[in-house]
Specification:
The complex is a heterodimer of chains A (282) and B (217). Chain A has helices spanning 34-43, 188-194, 265-269, and strands spanning 2-6, 10-14, 52-56, 61-64, 68-74, 79-81, 84-86, 92-94, 99-102, 110-115, 146-147, 172-177, 197-199, 207-211, 226-227, 232-234, 242-244, 251-252, 256-260, 276-281. Chain A is mainly β and 282 residues long. The longest helix of chain A has 10 residues, at 34-43. Chain B has a four-stranded antiparallel beta sheet, with helices on one face. Chain B has a four-stranded mixed beta sheet with strand order 5-13-6-7. A three-stranded antiparallel beta sheet of chain B has the order 10-9-12. Chain B has helices spanning 34-46, 72-81, 106-113, 117-126, and strands at 17-21, 26-31, 52-57, 61-66, 94-99, 129-134, 141-144, 159-162, 166-170, 173-176, 181-183, 186-190, 211-216. The longest helix of chain B is centred in the N-terminal third of the chain and has 13 residues, at 34-46. The chains are: A mainly beta (282), B alpha+beta (217). Chain A binds chain B through residues 19-26, 124-125, 134-136, 176-180, 182-183, 219, 221, 224-227, 229, 231-232, 249-251, 256, 259-262, and chain B through 7-10, 20-26, 28, 30, 53-63, 65, 133-141, 179, 198, 202-204, 207-208.
Chain lengths: 282, 217
């Protein structure tokens, strides 16, 4: 068992989400940065499907109810056990009664805390993920919550520390043309590729809003709602692009100009407000 | 674009079918209208395509989410070749939804349609409807089959709070809000039927292809 003393700005339980229910109006959800989620699980010997805690911008503070083996990945937040600082991307033993606290990450946005066995809350449609758009899954973590442990163990932990490349100051995301590229003026694609966009502060697990040169439309009529995929770059009426993340809606009513490569979705989920991001063709 | 030649736009031939790349793992099929979407969805349910993991219908388009390594070209060719007959809802159960017709927009709908309240209720309960697709919220089904006389535009100002169970109209669609949410549909009534219950299997009362009839309480 784990006791949440403080969740930080936002902490949710996440796993690989609930794919396959979009036709019922249910999005996939799941860890926004799946690669970091998987790595955290691997470091403590869990199966990929084990649920982790996704901590947004550090601040997560918890107490171990039993002896735990944990690992923190993703945005490199300093990990304090009692008051001793440890690094991420390595398994750490947390004896019963001790406290762990995440500082503020110097880069990136979302850190993943895996516990050996996984988080054991009740799954909804086969997933323990909190979907902030649809409201499915457990509520976001609150101070005083107690979190049960699961049994999603696969192997003994064998890795001492995983080498992880740092996040560049100005990430470049690979993109492919989207299904509605021809709804835009011919120069919109080159504008998107040539410009630095600033990450807006009002992003969340649904998507990252970007601020920069407007992407002007050639086709003006309304788009009947059509399905969305993770990484879809949708352009609402104002011309400022939005990159959809894990809790994206099932359908959207604005044209999609491009799609972020699967391999770069984790980097998109780690974009911080105020940071610059660029795009290049995949 | 993988296949197809028509430009997107409102005026399209009835058998318009364009297949577009949508990231590494998906194709988007654009069709002429919602009836064609329903027909293709039903066809892909009856005879699934190899390599397609999930089919997500919407208003004019249908998403094919593919398995890793699926052959996009072959799937596009097979979708283009798929014979689409008019969608014929499968026989069997019709979901009945009892409705109290006292919605906040009844007067506005009467004004827009020229129908009396009784005329609106008769038109709404007389139609056999089909779930074309779901979206907006878990369990929110977009039902088609309304008579033309009952087709009204959505409200110019959406409400910030629409109560769960509200029955609304918007263009060619009618539907029931599964839970309290913002919404811009014209509200004509309410029901106590639970449209979404995560613990139920299946959790959604209304799924694409399901037949529905409203009944006055």
């Amino acid at each position: 068992m784990i006791e949440i003393l403080a969740p930080g700005p936002l902490a949710t339980v996440q796993d690989l989400g609930r794919p396959g229910h979009a036709a019922l109006g249910v999005g996939r959800s799941g860890a926004a940065d799946v690669g970091s989620h998987r790595l955290a699980n691997r470091l403590v010997g869990n199966a990929d499907r084990a649920a982790t805690i996704e901590a947004t911008f550090g601040g997560l503070w918890l107490r171990a109810g039993t002896d735990l083996l944990v690992a923190v990945t993703g945005a490199p937040a300093p990990v304090f056990l009692e008051s001793v600082e440890y690094g991420g991307n390595a398994p750490l033993r947390l004896p019963a009664g001790t406290e762990l606290r995440l500082g503020t990450p110097k880069t990136g946005l979302r850190s993943y805390l895996a516990v050996r066995g996984g988080i054991g809350c009740e799954p909804v449609l086969g997933s323990r993920s909190t979907d902030l758009l649809s409201g499915l899954g457990p509520p976001r973590l609150r101070p005083g919550d107690t979190v049960a442990l699961g049994t999603d163990v696969e192997t003994d932990p064998v890795v001492d520390v995983a080498p992880v490349a740092g996040q560049p100051a100005e990430p470049v995301l690979r993109i492919a043309p989207g299904p509605r590229l021809d709804w835009f003026r011919p120069d919109a694609w080159t504008t998107l590729l040539a410009s630095a966009y600033t990450v807006s502060p009002d992003g969340n697990r649904i998507g990252v809003r970007l601020i920069g040169p407007a992407l002007d439309r050639a086709v003006r009529h309304e788009l009947p709602s059509e399905p969305i995929v993770p990484g879809a770059i949708q352009v609402p009426a104002g011309g400022q692009p939005l990159v959809f993340l894990a809790d994206h809606p099932v359908t959207g009513g604005y044209p999609v100009i491009g799609v972020v490569a699967r391999a770069d979705l984790g980097a998109a989920a780690q974009l911080r407000p105020g940071q610059h991001v660029r795009f290049r063709p995949s | 674009m993988i296949m197809g030649s028509d430009r997107p736009g409102p005026a399209q031939s009835h058998d318009h079918r364009e297949i577009m790349e949508y990231g590494e793992d998906a194709l988007l099929v654009e069709l002429a209208d919602v009836a064609a979407v329903m027909a293709l969805r039903a066809s892909l349910e009856q005879r699934p395509l190899h390599g397609v993991e999930e089919v997500v219908p919407a208003a004019r388009t249908l998403l094919l989410r593919l398995r890793p390594g699926a052959e996009k070209k072959r799937i596009a060719v097979e979708v283009q070749a798929r014979e689409l007959t008019a969608y014929d809802a499968p026989g069997g159960v019709v979901v009945e939804i009892p409705v109290t017709y006292d919605g906040a927009d009844l007067d506005e709908v009467a004004r827009l349609t020229g129908l009396t309240t009784k005329g609106i209720v008769d038109a709404h309960t007389g139609a056999e409807l089909t779930v074309a697709f779901c979206g907006f919220a878990p369990g929110f089904g977009y039902l088609v089959g309304l008579p033309d006389a009952l087709q009204v535009p959505r409200r110019s100002e959406p409400r910030t709070k629409v109560p769960a169970g509200s029955v609304g109209l918007a263009a060619e669609f009618t539907g029931v809000y599964p839970r309290e949410s913002p919404g811009g549909w014209q509200l004509i009534g309410r029901t106590d039927v639970v449209l979404w219950e995560a613990e139920r299997d299946p959790p959604a009362l209304l799924r694409p292809g399901a037949r529905v009839r409203f009944r006055p309480t």
